[in-house]
Write a structure and sequence with these properties.
The protein is an alpha/beta fold. The protein is built from 7 helices and 14 strands. The strands form 2 sheets. Strands 6-5-4-3-2-1-14 form a 7-stranded mixed beta sheet.
């Protein structure tokens, strides 16, 4: 399984970068996790739009879905200019009816409801869900292909349930929108210290901090997480590729 970070900023993208978007590939199957602002532009450095097999969304905040509309237009234009474009399934929850309805576009994109209480099979991936603590309904994902496991926390305050959910994962892609010592609970986000503690308690192999803040020195996030977790800690960055 291969993970490519397309975008990793919280709230909005920094100049020439993108907010949340992650490309996961295995056995030739390509799935995009979240599709925030700027994601479509940088996704095309790694894959042609028409070669995307599926997309899955954690929630409907704009920094995670802003490029869904332009992805729809890209699929349309690719078909018009003669490329073979199949209907793209976008897996999402239905707790925001308007957001879910917006995923349906001609015969080019189809919203497919996932049941968070059941596992989901998408290509070679098995995905299970955990409802996070965020101002709107949002779901973390445990993604397994073969014997490899990637856990994506999406947006959330710290939850004890994440320890079991992330247990022994090969990679924990964990949000860290705030620094140690800050109160992240009200915002529905996690601190670097909490991310590091979760990685240690869940016994993951590698921790990647993402959904990064627009203030402070983000290298401090890494240092604070490393004080809690003795394994490898990395900051997400555009075009970072990790092979699990």
């Amino acid at each position: 399984m291969k993970l490519t970070v397309i975008g990793h900023w919280g709230g909005y993208p920094k100049a020439n970068e993108a907010s949340s978007g992650y490309l996961v590939e295995h056995e030739g199957f390509c799935i995009l996790i979240d599709c925030g602002s700027g994601v479509l532009s940088f996704l095309q450095s790694h894959i042609q739009v028409q070669d995307l097999d599926a997309c899955i969304l954690s929630h409907y905040h704009p920094d995670h879905i802003a490029d869904i509309g332009v992805l729809q237009h890209a699929l349309l234009i690719q078909r018009v200019i003669g490329n073979n474009v199949q209907t793209l399934p976008v897996y999402a929850h239905t707790e925001d009816a308007q957001g879910f309805q917006s995923l349906q576009y001609k015969d080019l994109m189809e919203g497919v409801a996932y049941n968070p209480k059941q596992s989901l099979e998408v290509g070679p991936f098995t995905i299970t869900f955990l409802k996070t603590k965020h101002p709107v309904p949002c779901y973390a994902m445990r993604i397994q292909a073969g014997d490899k496991v990637l856990v994506y926390t999406a947006d959330t305050s710290y939850l004890e349930e994440f320890i079991l959910f992330s247990k022994d994962a090969d990679l924990l892609l964990c949000e860290s929108n705030l620094y140690g010592g800050m109160d992240a609970t009200a915002a529905g986000h996690m601190t670097s210290v909490e991310a590091g503690r979760l990685a240690r308690q869940a016994n993951v192999a590698k921790l990647v901090l993402t959904h990064l803040p627009h203030f402070g020195d983000i290298e401090d996030l890494k240092k604070e997480a490393e004080a809690e977790f003795s394994g490898q800690v990395m900051l997400a960055s555009k075009d970072l590729v990790l092979q699990l």
